[in-house]
């Protein structure tokens, strides 16, 4: 093969490779743009007042200044960026009131993440305060690994890590200090 033919083949291969890179770069940018989607809510509501019922009986009332629904994402959730005020009712019409500065409800897990100044009050005078608390809606169970203050008519205590039933009948604490009068 002559030197001229080798140079011609080399130049042709170089041009083809450069053309492929330029073409791929353009297509790559288009693919990036087509896969990009903005993270925006699929629905928004302001000044909401929702009532949940079961067999004609009100089980919960949720009040919030703003709700943002993200139903079209892979892990759908609902945000309450300006806080919530929830009243839960048991079968005997006893109330539990939940206040939080911020809340996120995850659809797939049925877990609600409450943040900010979280305060739960029972009709019997029991109050739990913390900066983050999770609520398992399916099992009606609250839990946190954070610091908390628990007060009831028998006394008060502070601790870190607690889980309890919606009606405060079952309470498990990890680290606790303070005095609470026992029924025993």
Automatic annotation (TrEMBL):
Gene3D superfamilies: Lipopolysaccharide (LPS) transport protein A like domain. GO terms for cellular component: plasma membrane. It comes from the Bacteria. One of its GO terms (molecular function) is lipopolysaccharide transmembrane transporter activity. This is LPS export ABC transporter periplasmic protein LptC. It comes from Flavobacterium alvei.
């Amino acid at each position: 093969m002559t030197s001229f033919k080798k140079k011609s083949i080399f130049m042709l291969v170089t041009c083809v490779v450069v053309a492929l890179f330029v073409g791929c770069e353009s297509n790559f940018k288009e693919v990036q743009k087509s896969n990009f989607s903005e993270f925006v809510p699929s629905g928004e509501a302001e000044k909401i007042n929702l009532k949940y019922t079961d067999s004609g009986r009100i089980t919960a009332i949720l009040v919030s200044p703003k709700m943002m629904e993200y139903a079209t994402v892979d892990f759908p959730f609902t945000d309450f960026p300006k806080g919530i005020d929830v009243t839960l009712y048991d079968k005997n019409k006893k109330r539990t009131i939940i206040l939080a500065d911020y809340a996120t409800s995850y659809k797939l897990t049925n877990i609600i993440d409450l943040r900010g100044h979280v305060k739960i009050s029972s009709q019997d005078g029991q109050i739990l305060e913390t900066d983050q608390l999770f609520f398992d809606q399916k099992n009606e169970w609250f839990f946190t690994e954070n610091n908390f203050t628990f007060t009831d008519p028998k006394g008060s205590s502070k601790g870190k890590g607690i889980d309890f039933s919606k009606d405060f009948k079952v309470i498990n604490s990890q680290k606790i200090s303070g005095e609470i009068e026992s029924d025993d």
